[in-house]
Amino acid sequence: MPQRRIVTGRSQEPRQRFAEELRRLRARKGDSLRQLGERLGWDWSLFGKMEKGETLGSPEVVDALDQHYGTPGLLLALWELAAGDHTQFRERYRRYMALEAEAVSLWHFAVSVLPGLLQTPGYAREVLAAGGLQEPELTQQVEARMGRRELLEGTDSPPFRVILSEAVLRTAMRDVGAWREQLDYLIEAMERSNVTLHVLPFSAGMHGLDSTAVKFLRLPDSRTVAYVENAYRGELIEECSPVEHLQRAYDAMRDLALSPAESRKFVLRMLEEVPCDPSTGAP
Question: If 0-12 CB within 10 Å is exposed, 13-18 middle and 19+ buried, where does residue 28 land?
Fold first, then answer.
């Protein structure tokens, strides 16, 4: 088969292509981000994040952009391709990501780092870089991870319960400002009606998932699958018996964790302990 010719020179990756088209159309229209926000009635920062590939936005926002730019259906079609593109993730995660997009409820346990669904771009970049990723794959994977957050941000988002080991919150980022931003985002996420967060304090002692991060997905057909991982590998588990074993360990650990209200206070204390940013002197 002859190699496909690239005529436009634009990205062939759906998320990047969507962001490129947003930037191109706004430049052609001559709008600033602030002007765009004022004309369409959304916070201008949302459009900035969409053009950077940090979020895809909702179908309602994209439809409004199509009408504003006079491109009926074009941006919405690109949005659908970007939202459904699982090739952006590394091969070993693609099956899990496809199932995650269909899940009717999710619950996680994080043993050392925050779940991707709760990460800011700065946190994701530092975690992925520490794992050995380099450019250009690093930026591509950060963008892919930010796209996953939209699963929890819509009006019909599935319930999400997460237990964070205290170690997650005690492992600060090198960049103080970025760490403060991450904790702020975590507190914001805890205020959503579909998000329930528990902190598992060190004082809880040993438990059945001491060295294992685990994610559970409840699927539309009522099956539950689990994904377990450490720093070097991950495994999708679909057989009933091992999934049930992991669920029992998770439930026992949840009994040891702080309540959502106590957990919120815990995260707020962590935020208060973040030192002032030396570049601004701000707390």
Answer: exposed
Q: Who contacts 167 (Cβ-Cβ below 8 Å, separation ≥6)?
A: 111, 112, 202
Q: Is the dihedral of CA 239, 245, 249, 254 positive or negative?
A: positive
Of 162, 166, 165, 168, nearest to 196 by C-alpha is 162
| End-to-end CA, the chain | 60
What does pTM read for this prediction? Answer: 0.66
Paired tokens of 44: 């201008």
Pairing of strands 105-110, 213-218: antiparallel
The answer to whether the CB of 122 falls within 8 A of the CB of 173 is: yes
247's enclosing H/E stretch is helix 240-256
The DSSP letter of residue 5 is P
pLDDT in tens, 234-252: 788 889 999 999 999 999 9
pLDDT tens column, 184-213:
999 999 999 999 999 999 998 888 787 789
